[in-house]
Specification:
The chain has one domain. It contains 5 helices and no strands.
Amino acid sequence: MNLWFRLWWYWLVIVTCGVTIFSISLLILPDFMQLFFNAMLFSSSQAHTTFGEIAYSYIKFLYGILGAVMVGWSVTLLFILVGPFYRGQREAWYAMTVSVLVWFMLDSSLSISAGFWQNAVFNTIFLIFFAIPLVGTYRYFQK
């Protein structure tokens, strides 16, 4: 296996594991993640104190659902990476790339339309972390 391909592959595994850890934190550390998103979206980690208790509980519930879905997505990506992607199967590259692009477009569009452009910026960072190794491996899948 080519040294560059291996580097890009490890990069993708690390980024995907990072997404998994982030996702798990939405499940097991909802209060901490609420502070993080409050600071990012509202410029104050204490913004949740303006919500009622029911609204705050519902937000934590939604973070849990989001975390569970993201864990499922990232585990699927990991299985693609360690199996067909590592073996150089073209469909694996497309599965990774299209999955990330669809997530980015939908999530960022919703974020911007709802007035939370900060989340779209946050998404762009994740997109770049995925895009660099995906672009780097593109030619290996075109043989």
